[in-house]
Structures are given as structure tokens and as C-alpha cells.
Amino acid sequence: MALTILPNLHHVLRLYHSFSEAQGAIIRYITGYYSAIRPHWYNGSLTPNESERLYYLQSNAVASIR
Predict the structure, then answer these.
(1) Is the pTM of the predicted complex or chain greater than 0.90?
(2) How far apart (Å, rounded) are the C-alpha atoms in residues 7 and 25?
(3) Phi and psi for 39 in degrees, rounded to 5?
(4) DSSP string across 17-44
(5) CA distances from 12 to 18, 27, 34, 49, 63 (A)
(6) Sign of torsion, CA 55 56 57 59?
(7) Alpha-carbon gap, residue 39 to 16, rounded angstroms
């Protein structure tokens, strides 16, 4: 059974020969492009990784005040 999914925003269809192959491609897309490179408007045009990093730094600063 072959699975066809859309692995990126360039509308290039790819044929995957197994579910695990398609799943790996999706995970690589999310971790390699969507979260690391692509900016998102809802968090100030930062990437999700950068937004999470800044949140972590700010939350530690607040939590360490005594």
C-alpha cells in the first residue's frame, strides 16, 4: 500500500511506501522547517523554537526573583 501526502508547502506530492516512511517525513518537516525556520505571525514573526526559548528565559527570570 502506498501513501501520498504533501510533505512541504511547495505542493510537491511524494509517494511513500509505508506509514512509517510518511511519518518520518512529517516529523522531519515539523522539526526541520516548521518549528526551526518558518516564522509565525501569532508569536511576533518568531519561529516556534525561538518563541519557546524566549518564553523559557522570561519564565526563569520571573521564577528566580526572591
Answers:
(1) no
(2) 7
(3) -70, 150
(4) SSHHHHHHHHHHHIIIIITTT--BGGGT
(5) 18, 17, 16, 25, 46
(6) positive
(7) 28
Q: Specify the residue for cell string 522539526.
A: 31
Q: Please tell me whether residue 2 adopts helix, strand or coil conformation.
A: coil
Please report where in the chains the cell 506530492 appears, as a residue.
13
CA nearest 47: which of 25, 31, 27, 23? 31
Amino acid at 45: S
Nearest of 61, 59, 62, 40 to residue 49 by alpha carbon:
40
Maximum CA extent, the chain: 60
Q: pLDDT tens for residues 13-53? A: 678 889 999 899 888 888 887 777 788 787 888 888 888 89
